[in-house]
Amino acid sequence: MTKPRMAAVDVGNDSIKAIFGELEYELNIPNIVARDTEDRPVIGIEELDAKEPLDGIHIKVHSPALKENNLIYRVGNLAAKSNNAAELDPGSSKSEEDQTLIMLFAALALDAVKGEFPRTKNVIDANYTLGTGLPLREVKEGKDAGYRSKLIGSVHQVEFLVTPKYQGLKVNIKFNEVKVYPEGFAAFINLVMDNNSKIINKDLIDKRILIQDIGGLSTDIAVIKNRNVDDDKAQGFNLGVSESLEAIREEIRSKHGVELDSRRDVVEIITRKNDRNHIMVKGSRTSVHDITDRILLDLAKKEYRLLRNVWSKNSQTEICYFVGGGSHVLKDYLKTLNNNLDGYNIEFFEDDKESIWMMANAYYKLITDFVRRTEKQKAEPVKS
């Protein structure tokens, strides 16, 4: 059997972030799927292979882990253009949604076709050691075990249909091992450990820390004491940025008649460096500041209330780190609120990529450490 390839995958509500092998390949795909037919129309079919695979992910997915099996999907950028595009709904559980698995399998298949695994005609047999995670709330409910069991012990197949460069290829995915980490703990590991399991932030090791991870569908607040997550005090909330992004998208449509493809389009309008909070309406540059400010400030107030409540129950906390894509969106609003109100010691990651990729990087560090320790144990002589 081929040596398993390491994969660290963060199936975020906005997008999936994945790191493979020895950091040699990264993927970032919008978390959007759309049901489709086998023969999607392509203008200029003979030029299909000149296009970028990530812009034309068209797959059939077979897996016993899926509630609805053997269906065909557009994924990512291609799905965003569909009338029936689906994004994860507020209140849903990441561990129980078919969409989570479809995105995971698609990302792994896109890595597998790059030549790491043996190929027999058009079939690739891929074997992975996977590090991934779930929101704290779902882990506390014990859903991590069920999620892991869906993946281990089965073969999951992705067939590329009308996808540039990969049309006709099938990838059989097996998992040698799956580690499912609570997202709050993973964020702490990313803060204090490098890729070689060495401590990089010694001053944080023994501090009392909160980590507020704001995602699309949920917010996790991890309470770190004595280098561990305090499971009793850590909390998960059904509050994320998705509903607010949908509200902005809907108000832009009703007020300006502009249809945005997905929540990711809204995020881009809010966060881009040039022309932030502006859209084009009939060819004219138009501000949507009034819409975005009102809706996002309201959400930031709710997130700040969560921080205040958790901090009051953990009064000896020294600092709170805001992480995740939602923190990136709400950063300016939360800073303003904090300056005008309680003045907590809070910290954001000014590097946008560092904040957005924090979970994937954390899973990479954790799964690398797991593999390293496992190999070391196997190499040690057995004591008689």
Automatic annotation (TrEMBL):
SUPFAM superfamilies: Actin-like ATPase domain. Residues 209-348 form the Alp7A-like C-terminal domain. Pfam families: Alp7A_like_C, ALP_N. Gene3D superfamilies: 3.30.420.40. Residues 8-185 form the Actin-like protein N-terminal domain. InterPro entries: Alp7A-like_C (IPR054368), ALP_N (IPR040607), ATPase_NBD (IPR043129). This is Actin-like protein N-terminal domain-containing protein. It comes from Neobacillus vireti LMG 21834.
